[in-house]
Each structure stands twice: as structure tokens, then as C-alpha cells.
Amino acid sequence: MTDATPTIVIAAGGEGRRMGGSKPAQILAGKSLLDHALHWAGKHSDLIAIAVRDSDQLEHTSIPILVDAAAGLGPISALKSAFSFAEKHDRDQVLLIGCDLPFLPSDLAERLAREIGSQCCAMPVSNGRDHPMTALWRVERTALEAFVAAGGRSIWRFAESVGVKRIDWAPEQGTDPFTNINDLETLARAEGRLRQP
């Protein structure tokens, strides 16, 4: 019998080249982007892990670290690691989130779990854009391994292959809760947004 609570895995393997290096360590409102993600995840799951490219990316932490089994696969490596981790802990669902998403909706995990239905993936959509790095997945490790072995690298295409339910998400107070931090300009805008009363 599996636990119904999904595990949350934070993808923190980004190099942050456009930000001067180490995206998870970039500071936003006095905390690293990774700490923002961990704080959010801690409100929604009792089982959290961090997926990275290699073990040298992060300093020691009490949170389990999942290291990519193979180099150069991109974000789908984090999903592979997440599936293996969830399976080991008898969880049949995984919410994979990027470490660069400091404004995620407070009801994201609950709403995706409620609306996934019979599909293998529940994926938010905002402003006409899919957000595969904030999706809830049923653990389909065999299907994912076959997809990667056949050369698949796109998380979005994997979602399409196993069945995805897209869920429209309205802006919150006029802003997109799925805004991700990819460069210093978006980091500065996020800082301003958090400082607003």
C-alpha cells in the first residue's frame, strides 16, 4: 500500500550562467532561491528531496540529495531521480518543481492532486504556457526509462506520451505565479515584487 501524499522533488541542477553561477544559491529577499523552494515544499509534503547534476553543487543539508545518474540529459534527469526516490519511499506521485519559482500558488499541490484524474500527469497552464517543471506525476519509472533510452529528453513530450491533464491557472493579483527566475533582471523584478506591501 502506498502513501497518498506525493513527494516533492526540487530540481536544483541549473548552472545559472546568466546569473553569475549557481542558480539555487542566488539570493532573493534575504534567502536563497533553494531556501524559498524548500520553505514552500515543507508546507505541502512530509517527504522532500533535491535533485542536482553532481554532489558538489550543494553544501551538506539534512534534505536528501538526488544526483543525476547520467550527465547531459537536462531536467528529465531530475524526473528520473524523483521517480526512483518516490518509489523507494512507497509514494506513487511526485510533484517536481524548479528551484527558481518563488511565487508558486499555495494550493498548487492540492489542486493538481484533485484534478489529475486518470491521467499520469497534471500540468498547470498560465498565459497559454505549459509548466512541466511544476507538474504532478504518477510514478511511471518503466515508461520514463524507455522514453529516455529511446532518446527522449523533453519533460513536456514525456507528459504527452503518458497522458497529461492541463489545468488553467489564473494570474494572482495580476501576476503569473509561475514566473521563473532565469537571469539577474527577473531576479531584480522578483525582489521588487516581494517588497511591495
Characterization of this structure:
β2 (about 25-30) and β3 form a beta hairpin. This protein has one domain: Spore Coat Polysaccharide Biosynthesis Protein SpsA, Chain A (Alpha-Beta Complex), CATH 3.90.550. Strands 1, 4, 5, 6, 7, 8, 9 and 10 form an eight-stranded mixed β-sheet that branches. A two-stranded antiparallel sheet has the order 2-3. It starts with 6 loop residues before the first strand and ends with a helix. α2 packs antiparallel against α4 (about 140-150). It has helices spanning about 35-40, 75-90, 110-115, 140-150, 155-160, 185-195; strands at about 5-10, 25-30, 30, 50, 65, 95-100, 120-125, 130, 135-140, 165-170. By secondary structure, the protein is an alpha/beta fold. About 30% of the residues lie in helices and about 20% in strands. The mean pLDDT is about 90. It is globular and about 45 Å long. It is built from six helices and ten strands, in the order βββαββαβαβββααβα.
Q: How far is the N terminus from the C terminus?
A: 46 Å
- Under the CATH scheme, which architecture would be assigned? Alpha-Beta Complex
Strand content: 15-25%
Computed Rg:
16 Å
Name of the CATH class: Alpha Beta
Instruction: Output the CATH homologous superfamily.
Output: Spore Coat Polysaccharide Biosynthesis Protein SpsA, Chain A
Give the helix tally.
6
Average per-residue pLDDT, rounded, comes to 90
Low-pLDDT windows of residues: none
Instruction: State the domain count.
Output: 1
Helix content range: 25-40%
Count of β-strands: 10
According to CATH, the fold-level topology is Spore Coat Polysaccharide Biosynthesis Protein SpsA, Chain A
Structural class: alpha/beta
Shape summary: globular
Could you give the order of the helices and strands? EEEHEEHEHEEEHHEH
For the report, how would you describe the main beta sheet? 8 strands, mixed
